[in-house]
Design brief:
202 residues, alpha/beta, 6-stranded parallel beta sheet, 19% strand
Length: 202
């Protein structure tokens, strides 16, 4: 049964709207929520994981966090005309955009999964319920240090969870996929979203 009072904007990784995003769109829609996954790249095709460097260069040179947030803001603003509550869920680069967007008063909740660039924006202060999910192993930074810094901030809206695995552990199309911890993280996301569903009835 659809809950038409609530919608989620799903923010993709550097690769665009790929199979993982389509999988997450279908997976999240099982909660009875409308899911919108805008294509921030404005390209018909998505990049393969073998094209990581090209995809990253394209994102940083042609989109970036500023334009990414601007595009998400436009989608959220349109959805707020139809829905009582709108959340933003992102992965990797999309998670960092979601984290930055958590300060926007239009946003009702945020979920960010392994957003490594969040380490550059630890001073963000969420104004809505925010769940950050990290893998406990990252090649480019100390995830435990980042989690510690975020938790010490003591944000009342922020919940941080750390799961066994490496970057991309929730992506069944990635070599880094971890079936066990992916299910644990998805359960965590489901519970968090269910809380937002309950709040929409208050």
């Amino acid at each position: 049964m659809k809950n038409h009072d609530i919608a989620i904007v799903l923010v993709h990784e550097i690769y665009g709207v790929n199979e993982h995003m389509k999988y997450m769109e279908e997976r999240l829609s099982r909660l009875g929520i409308d899911i919108i996954c805008p294509n921030l790249l404005h390209e018909e095709i998505s990049y393969s994981y073998k094209e990581e460097e090209i995809a990253y260069e394209n994102f940083t040179q042609n989109i970036g966090f500023k334009d990414g947030m601007k595009q998400v803001n436009q989608v959220v603003a349109e959805l707020k005309q139809k829905y009582k509550r709108v959340g933003v869920v992102g992965f990797s680069i999309g998670a960092t955009i979601s984290w930055l967007y958590s300060e926007n008063q239009m946003c009702d909740f945020v979920i960010g999964c392994y957003g490594s660039r969040i380490r550059n924006y630890v001073d963000v202060e969420p104004t809505c319920p925010t769940l950050l999910i990290f893998a406990n192993e990252e090649k480019v930074f100390d995830v435990h240090k980042l989690v510690d810094v975020l938790e010490k901030k003591g944000h009342s809206f922020l919940e941080v969870r750390n799961f066994e695995g490496t970057h991309g552990f929730m992506d069944p199309f990635s070599d880094n996929y971890n079936d066990l911890t992916s299910k644990q993280a998805l359960r965590c996301i489901d519970e968090f979203v269910q809380k937002q569903l309950s709040a929409s009835f208050l």
